[in-house]
Structure formats: C-alpha cells, structure tokens
Amino acid sequence: MLLSNDRGQLRRFYFTAWRKYRERRPMEPLEHQVAELIARHPEYHALFDTDPDRAEAVLQRDYLPESGQTNPFLHLGLHLGLLEQVTADRPAGIRAVYQALRDRCGDSHEAEHRMMACLAEMIWQAQRDGALPDEAVYMESLRRLV
Description:
- By secondary structure, the chain is mainly α.
- 68% of the residues lie in helices and 0% in strands.
C-alpha cells in the first residue's frame, strides 16, 4: 500500500491504520506499525482523529517549513524509513548505531528522532544535488551521534 506516489492515498493509509487501531480492529503488520508510531506522537492525535467529513481538507493540506509547520506525514514516514533501515541493517552498520544511540539516550524514540535528522539531511542533499543519496556520508553523520 505504501508503494504509491499518490499523496492522498498514502495519507489515507495513515488515517485508516489509526482508525483500526483505535477501534481495536484487525490490522495488517504495516498498519499496526503506522498506528504504533502515531500512538507515540500525541501531538498528532487530534489530526488523525479528524471527523471523516473534514478529513479531505487534512488530506490536501500542505505543510510548509517556511510557515513553521512540521509535516506529520513526512515525520512518520521518516520513522518508517529509518526503522526499515534498522531492521534490514541497510546501510550496513545502521542497526549497531541505532542500538548504541538508543542505549545512550535511554529511549528508542529519541534515538530515532536524532537519526531521522541525518536521514532527512541526506535526502535533502541528494535532491538538491540531483544525485543518489550518499550512504557513506549518511553513516558518518549517524556515527557522530554516538
């Protein structure tokens, strides 16, 4: 489901996962992972609890950094991407960095947020330069966190 370029479809997936979680309905593994991430972010609960009649406006909303807003969908997507990297240990060594940083922080969520800053920077630089992400630079920035 998350292999889509349709922003609305991707965002609806988050809403569906959260609704199933709150209603204690059966969920696919990825839905459960998304819902658990939302649960760890109480600042987003009101957004995902939006009345279905008003949800379309939320789905279409742009979150622009210059207006000082964090994009909750991007934030949660970075969590998902990072956790996938850690699970697959790709790039090689990222799992060890995650474990060391989690132990240092005493909190996996804080460790993820610190690592996500490096991930976002790598993505931004690749887009800016019109190049592939540089895993070596990424891993070096992650290792400096520990």
